[in-house]
Design a protein that fits this description.
The chain is α/β, with parallel strands linked by helices. Helices cover 40% and strands 15% of the residues. It has one domain: Rossmann fold. A hairpin with a 4-residue loop joins strand 5 and strand 6.
């Protein structure tokens, strides 16, 4: 006799991930008093749909964990110690003088925030806030400055030779065999990637570095020649990102983080460092594929082919964007204005299923669709259904409406 499948939570992939995460934590014997999920917030360019998706999925798992009866919170970690490698398309050319400086040290080119990173991460936080997402924001710079990651940084630097071999074995990259996986901010020129850290003093917790230069996108950029030291207890520098995830996960006790397939090798490196150097079991992962533009190119902050959440919000409600992220986690997605009507109509269909206006005979399918509707509303659905007009019809009407009376006509 075929065993009937059991519905977990609301029947979505989020519920399955939350259940498997909890079972894993039980086997590891770790505390379940507070389960943290994490997402990184990029701050090097205009945040796009893919940037938001990472944070939304982390929060979705947090919601699913809460539905299973566990306390959970989402950490939004801003990578504001990263250096600016390229001036994004359409940005002021004056930014060239700040290339390779930490984005939190660069003035806001638009003059409305304290720094470049505050402006960029602020756009993503605005999109999350408008969608109703709850998160604990952590600035990378402030985290380094507080010294909370010092012990993890100390262990990684003490084992730099082992770390360098792990990186080479997994990625083929050899440079960390000859330098420490730590980038100091040059105290003379203010740049971060032009420095090479060559010796760690564990008694003083300082790194010795030289500002020698670096190759970026095939071009060599000279350093200023300065030699100095960086205190790992402060924001004098940062770990290379092939080791930073591990330090963050162990320090902040992160139990879940999704990642894109483009950084799979780096995540594998950090997982190994977590286990072998920091003695911390890395978080439960879900791998997702990337968002592409209409031509099939990867959406990139630096390439300038960005479709922002704010653009989506001009034509679709926040719940429709959440539905796009929660529908599935596998497979690539093509993002364009043309898909907004389809997703809006799909949200209306899910509402009809949720309020039993549309009957779905298959129990598992029905619960999954109802679950998607719930998560698209962040588990706070309306009390009654709304009146639906097909969004595609509204689009067609707007195209034939008189320009001066378009709003009245539609």
């Amino acid at each position: 006799m075929k065993k009937e499948k059991q519905i977990i939570g609301h029947g979505t992939w989020l519920d399955k991930v939350a259940y498997e995460l909890v079972e894993r934590e039980k086997k590891l014997g770790r505390s379940l008093d507070l389960i943290r999920t994490e997402s990184g917030l990029g701050a090097s360019g205009i945040p796009h749909i893919g940037s938001m998706a990472d944070a939304i999925r982390a929060y979705g798992v947090t919601l699913a964990l809460r539905e299973l009866g566990y306390r959970s919170e989402t950490i939004a970690f801003c990578d504001d110690m990263d250096g600016l490698r390229k001036v994004p398309l359409g940005f002021p050319e004056e930014l060239k003088e700040y290339l390779l400086m930490p984005v939190s040290s660069i003035p806001d080119p638009f003059g409305c925030h304290k720094s470049y990173s505050d402006h960029m991460s602020g756009m993503l936080r605005d999109a999350l806030d408008r969608a109703g997402v709850e998160y604990v924001f952590k600035s990378g710079r402030e985290t380094y400055r507080s010294g909370v990651m010092r012990d993890a940084i100390h262990k990684i630097l003490l084992n730099a030779k082992v770390v360098g071999k792990i990186i080479k074995d997994v990625t083929g990259q050899e440079k960390y065999l000859n330098m420490l996986p730590y980038f100091a901010v040059c105290k003379n020129c203010g740049r971060i990637y032009t420095t090479q850290s060559y010796r760690y003093d564990p008694e003083k917790n300082i790194v010795h570095y030289r500002c020698t230069g670096v190759e970026i996108r095939g071009n060599w950029i000279n350093g200023c020649g300065y030699e100095g030291v960086a205190d790992i207890s402060r924001d004098d520098g940062k770990l290379a990102w092939k080791t930073e995830f591990a330090a963050r996960w162990s320090t902040l006790d992160i139990r879940f983080e999704a990642y894109g397939k483009d950084i799979a090798d780096s995540v594998k490196v950090n997982d190994i460092i977590c286990r072998e150097i920091l003695m911390f079991e890395p978080p439960f992962h879900v791998k997702y594929e990337l968002f592409l533009d209409k031509s099939g190119r990867k959406i990139s902050k630096s390439a300038g082919n960005v479709f922002t959440p704010q653009e989506w919000y001009k034509y679709g409600v926040p719940e429709s964007l959440l539905l796009l992220f929660f529908k599935r986690v596998t497979g690539t997605r093509t993002i364009s204005y043309e898909i907004i009507p389809k997703i809006m109509d799909e949200l209306d269909f899910l509402e009809d299923v949720y309020f039993n206006k549309v009957k779905i005979d298959n129990v598992m399918e029905r619960e999954k669709l109802r679950g998607l509707y719930l998560y698209a509303h962040l588990l706070k659905p309306p009390e009654k259904p709304s009146t639906h007009i097909p969004y595609s019809l509204i689009v067609e009407l707007s195209q034939v409406a008189p320009e001066d009376k378009r709003e009245e006509f539609v």
